Amino acid sequence: MSEVKLRVKLERSVLGLVAMEEEQEAWAQGERRRIVATVVSARHLPKMDMMGLCDPYVVISMLGSESKTGVRKNTLSPDWGEDVALPWVHSAGEADAAGDVQVSVYDWDMGSAGELVGVARMDGGVVFKRKVGAVSEV
User: N or C terminus: fewer CB in 10 A for the chain?
Assistant: First the structure.
């Protein structure tokens, strides 16, 4: 079975100052929060090309915005160590309505759209309820 390892943390910003180790859970006036995911690695990816390998990259999307990692060539067990910051959310209500954070792995192919290897989803509303600054592995 394939697996992708992420580290997820919640950042907050009040009046433009980013705080990642804040104890406060309640939303302050003028505060915004975002999810920052570190795409660590993937293991046991399926063979996707005639050479029996894969050229994987990860796309993380939420609220109509997406970010992607670089491509790792010719591997079924890539390492990335890349941070992906998702959009800022401006209220607890907006966080509750954020919907899913989608994590998709694609196989890069020259001259065509990437081929989907697999996809997983996390409830964004649940992630936004975690302690600000706490890091979770998923």
Answer: N
